[in-house]
Amino acid sequence: MRRSSAVPAAPFTRARRRADGAPVVAYDRRPGRVPIGAQLFTGEQISPRALPGGMPHAHDFLVLVHVARGSGSLLVDGHGVPLVAGDVCLVSPGQVVGGATTDEPDQARSWVVFFTADAVAGVTANPLAWRFHPLLAAFAESGTGGPRTLRVPDDDRAAWESLLHVLAREAPAHDEPPSLAAADQAATAALTLLLVSVARLAGPPAHGGGDPIVAAVLDAIEAGFRDPISTRDVARSLGYTTGHLTTVVRERTGRTVLEWLTERRMIEARRLLVETDLPVALVAERTGHRDAAYLVRRFREQHGVTPARWRRGARPT
């Protein structure tokens, strides 16, 4: 199986490390830009060296891989997933991706779509609500020995190719988006149609609910994130020690309780910044931050810009 050295640039940042040492790659959110990206990889671009940083990593967003031509494998959570033309591989946040290889470097052609759950309509609140969303539930159901794979029927492959071309044009993963009218809306529409196809291929979810401890943690976060609660407060409300709950949640979701709490607060902060004219100090107060300076510091850590700059960039001019 041939490997190559082509390394395209990546629009992601390495945010932290898991308990096992694997780096966690975060989606590089930019003000005013929908968190969706698509890229076509061909030939020698399909290589473990194309990974962000050239090394295995987990990530905090969803990834869809579609093999349009050729065959090869994708390494996820230490399992080699064989893929052939027409296959779709669904990689969920927290899974460790070790890279791809191809058996046919002269013929290989694979699409990769990156997106955050809140790019999908209806996923705006609880950070793990996407696992129960009808268009995303298939990503939460791992197959035996690795991520879930599906098969696109031959009659549907031309439609998939067209939608993926639209995504790559309207929301290129590694380049600045084109200055086209309604590019974000076009990308969101194309992604939605792809996910509708995925949901139909996957069929009904195999189970009706998620992990009870994780669900309880997320409910506690949803109920209290507007107040200055901590991981200790969440653990105490559920009757666990802080250390035990942190370990369990990290093992089962790839993130700690604090990271989920922070993400929920950031979701609300971004919403308030875009949809209201509240001063940053009031945004901080309504998202559980002790003062504006603390919100600014955490927001810059997460997004690379201040809340005020995010607000300016996210609003139409």
Automatic annotation (TrEMBL):
A Pfam family of this chain: AraC_binding
User: Keywords on this record?
Assistant: DNA-binding, Transcription, Transcription regulation
Q: Could you tell me which residue ranges the HTH araC/xylS-type domain spans?
A: 215-313
The answer, when asked if Transcription is one of the entry's keywords, is yes
Q: Entry's InterPro entries?
A: AraC-bd, AraC_XylS_family_regulators, Homeodomain-like_sf, HTH-like, HTH_AraC, RmlC-like_jellyroll
Q: Which residues form the signal peptide?
A: none
GO MF annotation list:
DNA-binding transcription factor activity; sequence-specific DNA binding
Q: What is this protein called?
A: HTH araC/xylS-type domain-containing protein
